């Protein structure tokens, strides 16, 4: 510019371009650990501390019951999804991770790290609850452990006395429904900004269905975390709540991939 008083040697600075970077592997694994901790702490803590609080011989109770535990599951997922989802995707559940991988929405090479982080997060949550119980009223911790420490189970360990076949069926179906909803509401083109809310509400609903039958696993990390403190019977039965939620998640992943996520271009005949 002819009238520009600045020396020719002055170069106009250009704005710095901000290029978003993906979270590091360490950050994603820590987020998965933290989110799983939140989920298990919310569900199991509510089940052990609040579900039957203040039950008296007259039948009165200040406890939140099945409904309160189900809402705790949903609320923790909603909070975790918005807090940690942008970092790790917010799986917090081995069945979800494997279901997403089966659907082609998550790399198989990253599955192992996520599963380890989820297991550690769940175990840390039940450890905190156990340590809290050490400072509880006389007999509280032993009663919680004698009652299974909110573990999942069948036959005598089922809240409603349901057998193995019923428990297997309910765990497969509820997990498959849950993972299918996750895949739908987080789809890149058909998803919704309210995905975290929809996922949390669906988990609460599936807990309302499954708690009387199996005490509602839908999540192997949650089941392992409680079985460790729940005693021998819970540990003997925990395989059911590792295998069948995973089967449900894989069914949902493969079914969604081939039935609902066809991205091939439409060609008129």
Automatic annotation (TrEMBL):
This is Aquaporin Z. PROSITE patterns: MIP. The chain crosses the membrane at residues 26-50, 62-85, 91-108, 115-134, 162-185, 194-214, 234-259. One of its GO terms (cellular component) is membrane. Belongs to the MIP/aquaporin (TC 1.A.8) family. Residues 1-21 are annotated as: Disordered. GO terms for molecular function: channel activity. It is a multi-pass membrane protein. The keyword Transmembrane applies. The keyword Membrane applies. Keywords: Membrane, Transmembrane, Transmembrane helix, Transport. It is found in: Membrane. It comes from Pseudoclavibacter endophyticus. Its main location: membrane.
